[in-house]
Amino acid sequence: MRIVCGVEYNGTGFYGWQRQPHARSVQADIEAALSLVANQPVQVVCAGRTDSGVHATWQIIHFDSQAERSERSWMRGANANLPDDARLLWARIADDDFHARFSAQERSYRYVILNREVRSALLHRQVTWQYKPLDESRMQEGVRYLLGEHDFSSFRALACQAHSPVRTIHRLDVTRSGKYLYLDIVANAFLHHMVRNIAGVLMAVGCGEQEPGWVRDILDQRDRTQGGVTAPADGLYLVGVRYPERYGIESVGFVPEFG
Hints:
Layout: E1 2-9, H1 26-38, E2 44-46, E3 55-64, H2 71-81, E4 86-93, E5 106-114, E6 128-129, H3 136-143, E7 148-151, E8 166-177, E9 180-187, H4 194-206, H5 213-221, E10 236-242
Parallel strand pairs: 3-10, 5-6
Antiparallel strand pairs: 1-3, 1-4, 2-3, 5-9, 5-10, 7-8, 8-9
Helix pairs in contact: 1-2, 3-4
């Protein structure tokens, strides 16, 4: 039986999604919890692996199990065995051909920036802090060079293991609400550190260190060493995964908003 689940987690205490031999990961905690419910080992596959410190409000996973449990039992049983910073939101029986990663058509992220002189004590590790005034109109002007299909070599980590650097960004919006800026980005898939590298470049444009056309120059160079600073993981949320309608999975979960 194939089961699909929606998962949310606070990434602060995890060394990323992927199972690590000597560090805590979201995958390992969820597999341990589900294995207790199934009374047998369970391995899960996710829609998109997140970095250390990155949060998720709508991560999608699937797993196969011979254990016969109700959908509610999978959810409640797993949550009873999970730590406080990870939760299964729901669980349901999936079609045999469903795959959390390969069936996904789009992923959506939100990056939250607190733009004021002083860091937030209450939102520590939940938002990225930038004390320099940011002009969202300049940032949005730089965005236009990133839309569509491109070679994003300049925006991926040097250690990225993806076979191809080509990705398609369907939407990228920069909006402001009071002291908070939101970067909402939707793409078919993402490279390692791609969103954080884009955020770092756009913040350099927003604070006047670079002109909007610099974004195009970086993209054309296809060289990560020319791509500026990688923005912190704080404030980055996986908020949606879109699948074909026949699977009946909602495409977006909770989108954090602070302003």
